[in-house]
Amino acid sequence: MRFTTRELSRRTFADFEAFHASVHSCGCMLSLRGRHLSPVAVTAEERAKLLGAPDRSKKKFPHHEWWMARNVAEMKELVWAGQAHGILVYADKEPVGWCQFGRAEELPIVRTEKTPPNRIARDPTSEWRITCLTTRRDFRGQGVATRALTAAVEAIRKKGGGWIESTPVAYPQSKREWRKIKRTYGIRSEEMKDYLKTWPTKHIPGVGTVKAALSTSQTADYRGVMTMFENLGFKPTQRDEHGSSPNWWAPYDLVVMRLKVDGAA
């Protein structure tokens, strides 16, 4: 299938909204804000009193709808102000993929001492960041994310270029057996410890040994995988200490990757 791309703008904002509603995402406000919205209520009972109880038979979740509406409203303000950037991928004029990118100084836009380090560029010389790659489930495995990533790099080149940074997973690993052991024995069980003794690792020159990331074709990681970036010329520089998993029972490593692109003539 031939895919086309368009950059996020006032003209394409309705497509952005439609796409993120179809994949039940955060609308990429986490990277722009540096945190999730504060919940409308702490417990499910409190949320139900304020917004109505979920109807699972109709896949209606009032709290999620409220959360998405807030995210979309904030994103719209940023798009109109020229502070939010991204690429939409289309199949027959229907949005099926997304890649968020932006200037490192604007991801997140407002920073405080409480902003987590995994929301900030790892290298202080990075001028741009690519933070999110999302593909609608029925279009995964068809090159949508690669198409979006390629378009994002080109958009950055047209905006002046510079150093681009991203933190994809080292490489994916099926989690079918991991989920079976978790379900049967528990996530922190001795059986899980034994299973993870042989968890795949990979040596990356100049970086060191990294662990595979739990992933399947049905739940592709939104950061993308290292090979996608390597194919466009990105080079791994270090293991991402801030983004990699600190938990032995859910292993994954992220890798900091960078690319210098010249601005358009």
TrEMBL record:
Keyword Lipoprotein belongs to the record: no
InterPro entries documented for this protein: Acyl_CoA_acyltransferase, GNAT_dom
Position of the signal peptide: none
Transmembrane segments: none
Keywords: Acyltransferase, Transferase
Enzyme class, first EC level, given as a word: transferase
Pfam families associated with the record: Acetyltransf_1
GO molecular function: acyltransferase activity
Coiled coil, from the record: none
EC annotation from Swiss-Prot or TrEMBL: 2.3.-.-
Transferase keyword on record: yes
Gene3D superfamilies in alphabetical order: 3.40.630.30
Domain N-acetyltransferase, first and last residues per copy: 40-205
Protein name per the record: GNAT family N-acetyltransferase
